[in-house]
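TL;DR need structure tokens for one chain.
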Amino acid sequence: MTPKLLNRLFGVIAMLLALEAALAELFFHFVLHQARWSVLIALAFSLPIAAWIAYRITARLRRVAAFAGQIAAGDLKARLPVSRRYDDLSAMEAALNQTAERLHQSFAESESRGQELAAILDSMQEAVFAITAEGYVRWSNAVMQRIAGTQIRAGRALVHSVRDPDVLNCIRNTLERHELCFGRASSLAPGRVFEINAAPLPGGGALVVLHDVTGIEAAEKSRREFIANVSHELRTPLTSIQGYVETLMDDSVSRPETMREFLGIILKNATRMNRLTEDLLALASVESPDYKLALQPMRASSLLSDAMDALGGIVIDSGVKLESAGAPDAQVMADPDAMTQVFGNLIENSLKYARSGKRIQMGAKLNGGEVEFSVRDFGPGIASEHLDRIFERFYRVDKARSRESGGTGLGLAIVKRIVQAHGGRIWAESELGSGATFNFTLPLAEPAPDPAPPAP
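>> reply
TL;DR here they are.
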């Protein structure tokens, strides 16, 4: 092949290569242009879809966040709407709802137990309250709130709510030493005595229980006074009897009139001791829980006349006149034997003061749903400071006169217990120089039901 032909062939090849390169570049630009439009078209369609999906997911996440805020705020009834389409978010929403339901149930149970515990503590007779380790009131039951009033409330310092030093010292020892402390408080409430029990709490602070022992203290005081009074009442006649007996034993040649005098004194003191014993037994009987009355309907007028007939002899021998001021025919519920004892003790008490007035007046009147009986003397009267205590055991207005007349100081106490056992009331009225009146009431008897008409 000639060189000229070869040059032409190479020129054609070069042209073909250049043409191929131009076509390739043209195709590349075409493909690039198409790709750009495809991307733009794809973005135009996918971006709204992605934004919509993102918005849906964001909205659900916002609901989850709002739900978490409601739970944190204490709204345990809040719930998330769970999507029907199952995905990871739906599973999370369902799990959160289950957690909220469990929390709601646990909180409801805790609240129910708390209310039950509060009801139990409020129903207790003891005052109960808890304080923090810093000395602030955590809570208190109704009894403690009644004792301390509005001063005690949660979050308030205990020293601003309770001023009793014994209570504060006992609680301070418990908080500092973390051990039980017992004490007694007498200035927490006027006229009341409390036993203090303070115990440390595991989480800090203390639980305090105040037990009202006022009644126990009063009963113990009454028991001590009763024993002291009985001992005193028995010691006086016993000492007298012992002294006269020893005198008689040492002096074997005493004159008969002296011996008779001594024996009379011994008999008088023995009689006084016997009467004291009988009154003690009577008082123990009427104060016993087993004391029963044989109640029956009786006319007030009959009750009064029977008492005057039974006790008239005692009054006549004393030179005092017994008068009746009248009584209604209304029926009362009464035990006849017990009422005889009541009238007998009242008349014997009046005889000690009625000798100067020379008469005792008995009467009764209807007063609402009860009958009010009265025994009045016309003696010197009783000072007002004695009227509230005259029905106490062994209490005497005039101790010298009472002992001289053989009184034991138990008669009016027995009368009070019997009247109270009947469901009545008793009190005394008096003015110095105008005598004294002892009043007591008995409830009216219920009317008997009308008999049923005979069958035709």
